[in-house]
Structure formats: C-alpha cells, structure tokens
Design brief:
It comes from Blepharisma japonicum. GO terms for molecular function: cyclin-dependent protein serine/threonine kinase regulator activity; kinase activity. Keywords: Cell cycle, Cell division, Kinase, Transferase. It holds the Pfam family CKS. This protein is of the alpha+beta class. It has a single domain, classed as Cyclin-dependent kinase, regulatory subunit (Cyclin-Dependent Kinase Subunit Type 2, 2-Layer Sandwich), CATH 3.30.170.10. It contains 5 helices and 5 strands, in the order αβββααββαα. Strands 1, 2, 3, 4 and 5 form a 5-stranded antiparallel β-sheet that branches. The longest helix is centred in the last third of the chain and has 10 residues. The chain is globular, with a radius of gyration of 15 Å. The termini are far apart.
Length: 120
Amino acid sequence: MNKTKKEKQEEAPKIEYSEKYYDSVWEYRQVIFPKEWGMRLMERGLMPDEEWRGYGVQMSKGWYHYGSHPPEPHVLLFRRPIGTDPSSGVVDRKLGEDQFREFEYTRHLSKPERIAMGIN
C-alpha cells in the first residue's frame, strides 16, 4: 500500500533547528531529532544531502552533514562555508583562497578518508 503525503508527514519526526553559529570559515547549525531516533541516525553515519533531506530535514542549500554529537546521537551537526548563497548552494569566491580550497577539498572526501585525516 502506498502512503499518502499526509500519512508520510504524520510519520515524519518532529525536528528542531538551532540558531546558526560561526567561526572564521564556517556557518554551523544543529538539527535535533527526537531522542528515540538516536540509534537509527548513529547507524547511518555521515549522510549526503538527499539522505538527510529524506528524513525530513529542511534547510537551504549548501549545508553538509559533518558529524553528530556523541553524547546525543539524535543531534546532527551541519556546516557550510560563510558566504554560501542559500538559494543555489554556491560558495562565494570572495572567501579567502585558503578557506575556499579547504572547503573544496574536504567536501569530496569519503567517510573513511575523513576519519583517517581527523576531519569530522
């Protein structure tokens, strides 16, 4: 039996979003799922855009799931470079070249490569 859009929405978890916070390169945000989702999310590991959006996360473009908060596996950590256009996900080349190169390099690494390099 195929579920209706309304049935799917009723099954979707209630998701909360933190305020954004920043360092010199990145814009960060936490996405908080219900606690009972912790083990399911922890088993998934780092998720590509299509997967986390499939769980019902709704954020503008350019965000990357880079980790979780170990004591609270239902809290997912996201970041994107400061200066990212939220409608296109394109990074502003006005960023410092070092920050832009770091972003371009690390966003394409596989999970094992990230772990080996100590990158979240």
